[in-house]
Amino acid sequence: MTSWQTVLEALRTQPPGTEWWSGIDEHVHPSGVPRMRLSAGEGHGQLCDYRMLDQTSGGCLHVRVYADHYVSHFDRVDPSLDLAGHLARDCRRKTS
Question: Which terminus has fewer CB within 10 Å in the chain: N or C?
């Protein structure tokens, strides 16, 4: 099994918006990881969301939980530390 810390470290070095898709059996469920906390996120059909603070950068790993897989990405700003900063840096939407 791959640890969530490994996923966090890998995504932290990737461009913003990079997603990591993994099967439900590839990780311990986030609820079983002491550093993970139940969180909110934009609706994408997921069952729930979890976040794990990156103590190095102040960002966080954001994990969306689906019935048969996870989708993770790295947020540059943890919303529990700076909601306005998170919205400005991690939640931008394209406008046309």
Answer: C
Reference 11, options 54, 68, 73; nearest CA is 73
Strand partners, 37: 51
How many structural domains are present in the chain?
A: 1
Tell me 62's DSSP state. E
**30 CB contacts (<8 Å, ≥6 apart)?**
4, 36, 50, 52, 63, 65
Q: Is the Cβ–Cβ distance between 75 and 59 less than 8 Å?
A: yes
Single pTM value for the model: 0.87
* 24-53 average pLDDT score: 93
